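Weekly puzzle thread! Below is a chain. First person to post its structure in token form gets bragging rights.
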Amino acid sequence: MGNLGSIQNMLKKVNAHATISSDTKVIASADKLILPGVGSFDTAVTNLNRLELIPLLNERVIDGKTPLLGVCLGMQLLTRRSEEGIMPGLGWINAETIRFRFENEKLKIPHMGWNTVEIQKKDDPLFRDLSYEARFYFVHSYYVKCNDPSNVLTTTIYGSDFCSSVVKENIRGVQFHPEKSHKFGMKLLKNFADLT
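Winning reply:
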């Protein structure tokens, strides 16, 4: 689920070959993986189970250390669980997905529109050559709360600081939509495509 065509088109613009597939043979031979997602947590987990992809993803990403980028709901799926549903996530990041709650502020949910990110790990190659003015497009009602601060790659302010991207070894996730984020998103996807 997600903006598969938009992500593929953005990758084409940076000369990265990308195939949209749920075929286990294609996934098993991929150099890198992108897990996009739009919609509800439980529906996405159900689809991964129905397609019998979770064992293969564990094999490729956890055992084989294949670089993976989760996008929006795809980042939330990396966590142990979500307040949005009852099914377990992939559990690759020691984190929970939590709904925004604003008691004293009149901020709308979902958090929708352009926002900046503050890079917490300046040497991470995903944000190489992306400076402090880089802006990305967000649409989400839930955010990832990391139990291990070392997994926080960037933060963003919406009411307060929240984790807007995560990292753990070969695994990365972004809460925003790089495919909707123009030159900044294009650069981020190029950086992901160039990971070795």
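Puzzle host: Confirmed. Bonus trivia for everyone else. The helical segments are 4-13, 24-28, 41-50, 54-63, 73-76, 182-193.
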